[in-house]
Design brief:
With 300 residues, this protein is α/β, with parallel strands linked by helices. The chain has 7 helices and 11 strands. The strands form 3 sheets. It has a 7-stranded mixed beta sheet. Strands 1-2 form a two-stranded antiparallel ribbon. The chain has a two-stranded antiparallel sheet with strand order 3-4. Helix 2 crosses helix 4. The two termini are 23 Å apart.
Length: 300
C-alpha cells in the first residue's frame, strides 16, 4: 500500500544517545496530542518511554522534527481512505491523531528506538525485532476503517506486535484485547500502554489461533495482523452477532495474500467478501500444524 509524496527521513535514534507544501489537515486534527490527558512534549515522551522499560533521550530539536512530520502523514491517511473507501471515518482519523506513533517505533530485539522514522512518507513497515514489524500506517488505517469500530464495542487483535493497532482501537472501543505468540515481544510490549494512560488495553502471550475464550461476551471486532492459511474456527465462534472480522489469508511469505472481511448477522450466519491484496508475516503456532480440513468447516 503506497503513500503519496516522499519525505526525507530523520535518522533513527539509539535507545540512549547523548542529548544533544503539505496537504491541509482538517481543523479537528490540529489539536495538540495529549496522551494520558497531558501535553505530549519531549519530557512526557521520555518519561513514558522510561516507564515502559525503554529509556530514551533526545533533544528538543529532534522531538520537534518528529512532530513536524505528523500533519503530512495525517493528510496521507485521510487521502488514502477517501481513495480506497470513498470517505475517511472521523473516528479513525481522531484515533490516529491521538496516538504518538513515535512511541511505538522500537526494535525490542536490538533495544533501539526508531522514533525518528515515525510518520514516514511513503509509509512502510518497520522492524520491531523477533521477526515482527510495525505495519505501515496506511494499511492500519484501511483495516481499521473496514471493520468500523464504534464506542461501546470490544475488540480483539491477533498479533500484538508493536501494540500500535490495539492502542488505536482503544481510542474508539471500550476495551481492546490483543494476543502475541512471540513471548519476548509480548512480554516487552505489555508495559507500554500504562504510561500513556491506555488502561483499556489488555494483552497476553498466547496462540491467537484459539482467540480469547475467557472473554465470555465475545468480540464486536476481530482484526488479524498476521497471514493465516484459513480463518480459525475459534475466531468465528467468538465473534458476536453483528461482529466484523478482517484477516489476511494466503501462504506464508508469498505474494497472493488477500484480506477477507467477515460479518456475523443476527442469526449467527457468517457472510464473507474477498477484499484487496496484502502481505503479512505468517500466523504461527497451531495454524502451521492444523490443516484446514481438520479445523472443521470454515467460511474462508
Amino acid at each position: 500500500m503506497a503513500g503519496a509524496a516522499s519525505l526525507a527521513a530523520m535518522p533513527a535514534l539509539a535507545a540512549t544517545p547523548a542529548a544533544g507544501a503539505d496537504a491541509p489537515v482538517p481543523a479537528m486534527l490540529s489539536v495538540p496530542m495529549t496522551p494520558n490527558g497531558k501535553p505530549w512534549d519531549r519530557e512526557a515522551f521520555q518519561a513514558a518511554m522510561a516507564a515502559g522499560g525503554r529509556p530514551l533521550s533526545l533533544t528538543d530539536a529532534q522531538f520537534a522534527a518528529i512532530q513536524a512530520r505528523k500533519p503530512a502523514a495525517m493528510a496521507a491517511i485521510e487521502a488514502y481512505l477517501k481513495l480506497r473507501l470513498g470517505s475517511a471515518d472521523p473516528l479513525v482519523l481522531a484515533a490516529f491523531q491521538a496516538l504518538p506513533r513515535e512511541y511505538y517505533h522500537y526494535n525490542y530485539e536490538q533495544h533501539r528506538s526508531t522514533c525518528g522514522d515515525a510518520y514516514d512518507i511513503p509509509a512502510k513497515p518497520w522492524a520491531i525485532g523477533y521477526g515482527s514489524a510495525l505495519s505501515d500506517y496506511l494499511g492500519q488505517a484501511y483495516m481499521t476503517q473496514v471493520i468500523a469500530p464504534k464506542p461501546g464495542e470490544i475488540s480483539l487483535e491477533i498479533g500484538t506486535g508493536s501494540g500500535f493497532q490495539s492502542s488505536l482501537l482503544s481510542r474508539i472501543v471500550d476495551h481492546a484485547y490483543s494476543i502475541e505468540i512471540i513471548e519476548p515481544l509480548g512480554n516487552a510490549v505489555k508495559p507500554i500502554f500504562g504510561p500513556l494512560g491506555y488502561d483499556n488495553v489488555t494483552t497476553k502471550v498466547g496462540d491467537g489461533y484459539y482467540g480469547w475464550p475467557e472473554q465470555k461476551g465475545g468480540f464486536d471486532i476481530i482484526i488479524v495482523t498476521c497471514a493465516a492459511q484459513y480463518a480459525p474456527p475459534a475466531l468465528f465462534a467468538q465473534l458476536k452477532p453483528g461482529g466484523r472480522m478482517i484477516i489476511p489469508i494466503g501462504q506464508p511469505f508469498k505474494q497472493g495474500q488477500v484480506f477477507y472481511v467477515y460479518h456475523k448477522d443476527a442469526t449467527g450466519k457468517i457472510h464473507s467478501r474477498r477484499d484487496m491484496g496484502c502481505f503479512f508475516i505468517p500466523m504461527t503456532g497451531a495454524m502451521m500444524k492444523v490443516p484446514a480440513a481438520q479445523a472443521s468447516a470454515s467460511p474462508a
